[in-house]
Amino acid sequence: MKRNQLSIRTIVAIGIGAAVFIILAKFAAIPSPVPNTSIQTSYAFLALMAVVFGPIAGGLIGLIGHALNDAISYGSVWWSWVVVSMIVGLLIGLASKKIDIESGIFNTKKIITFNVVQVIAQGIGWFLIAPALDILIYAEPANKVFLQGLFAGVSNMVTVGVIGTLLLAGYAKTRSRSNSLTREL
């Protein structure tokens, strides 16, 4: 197998991850007072998948999951936000080697690393890129899109910080510790 090819495991994870992202975005979103914006639990799952499978999987799950959810839910795709979902998955995935969740260790240092990375990724995506693309692509009013981006970014930071951290802690407990001869359950 070539070094740059995706493994079958990663390809399957992308497909399943995108499907779960859609389900969570459609059925586990909490309405918000900001128009066309909701509190999304799907980003906590995206963060888990990005840390477990890396940046390519994280980016593609965000891209495919968000694009298909928009197409199914609204009949058209809002590309500016889809691009941000891809970027958030990619950036969180870039920290996967540093976090090394497969070691079975998800200690305070790794929790802090994960949350610093996800807050930076979400901030770049939702505070800067999404509003800028909304203005450039869709000629949306700046005050509207910056409010939406601010709300989406902060709510995603909180949901990923809480739910994403819990998902990663639970996942780490299913992995063998790197210094252990037995598997922890």
TrEMBL record:
Pfam families: ECF-ribofla_trS (PF07155). Its main location: membrane. The chain crosses the membrane at residues 6-30, 42-65, 77-95, 116-139, 145-169. It is found in: Cell membrane. The keyword Membrane applies. Keywords: Cell membrane, Membrane, Transmembrane, Transmembrane helix. It is a multi-pass membrane protein. The keyword Transmembrane applies. InterPro entries: ECF_substrate-spec-like, UPF0397. GO terms for cellular component: plasma membrane. HAMAP family: UPF0397 (MF_01572). Belongs to the UPF0397 family. This is UPF0397 protein E0Y62_11820. It comes from Cytobacillus praedii.
